[in-house]
Specification:
two-stranded antiparallel ribbon
Amino acid sequence: MSGIWKDRPFSLVLSGGGALGIAHLGVLHDLECKDLEPAEIIGTSMGGIIGACLAIGMKETQIHERLKSFASVTKWIKFSLSGNSIVDSARIEKIFDAIFGERMMADVSIPLKIIATDLETGDKRVFAADDKVLIKDAVLATMAIPGIFEEKVMGEHVYGDGFLCENLGLRESSLQEIVAVDVVGRNSFINTLPDNFFKTFNVIEMLERSIRLLMHNQTKNILEQVDKNILLLEPDTSAFKTSHFHKVEEIRALGLGLL
């Protein structure tokens, strides 16, 4: 790969997937080792968070250290007793404020696009350099899973997680060459259905499997529509759940050696 991509600018597209998105770090590590830097970054949900960190000039080791703080969910999750979500975003906002400060979408080293969904219309919203939007606000929008994380109100619009419209933002690439990392791709499923003793566990696992299938099929359809040179990397995340933020090292390792 290094011989091809060193000669051509490429977009780095990072998917959503909750804690599974930590696997993006392994790919970033390998890109740095090969002295490869994307010409633009496109991210959804967790891919948007990691992509934004990379875009402002953070190295993989720095992003890695930041994500370790998510290993203890009590440090960033505060349950909400009102509104439309389970989690109050106050603690998460403080973390993103410490990382991005008052940087706007244009205040980056590498051009950045972050995908969110307008929860009132269902339309895709792509935050980019032309928008007078703070990076931290765009990140809060792209990760706002409806019902789980607090929706992000920006002006007259209400935004939620980008996975609802485009979990792998291939259509937003302005370049012909794309390196895309999909943590909920074909390697994110096991061949058997849940068979736990307790029905509750089966229901939860079936719900997560269903959401992964929806995102995977969404991406398959988009791949058929995009006429570009795509290097698609799909880490084997099948043994992990989207809530496994405490398994940073194990999930990061899944992205190593894919290039």
